[in-house]
Amino acid sequence: MKITQYLFIIGMLFLISIDAFAQRQEQRGYDREKLESARIAFITNRLELKPDQAEKFWPLFNQYNEQRSAIMETLVGLNRISAANISEVEAKEIIQKRLANQQKMLDLEAAFMESIIKVITPKQAVQLSGVNREFTRQIYRNQQGGGRRN
Description:
150 residues; mainly alpha; globular; LTXXQ
């Protein structure tokens, strides 16, 4: 369970950053479809997905991302509420809602990993979070105009 929690935290942080980045790019007038196509190509290439793997992987991954995004929207809403002047009772309710949503995220991550390792290897599944972060960093560096910095 510890490894699953670790992967969940890493995955959650990555996916939060991808969502935030994609929203910023969209607000700046970037084509979300092009960004998504680049992400698909990048991940497919880096994980060395075979065509039959990719065909099964992407629907699962996209469904996971949609479900995760819905939970993240709820968490963002709770964070906005918690920034307001709230009572102690409301604060306790927010804490419980946050924990419930974090548990939903963990359950979603566990179910995703369970289903995805039937399609790709466990090694590829573990590498997925790192590849996602690498894609985000590369896009960010390109956006900054700095290319690769050491």
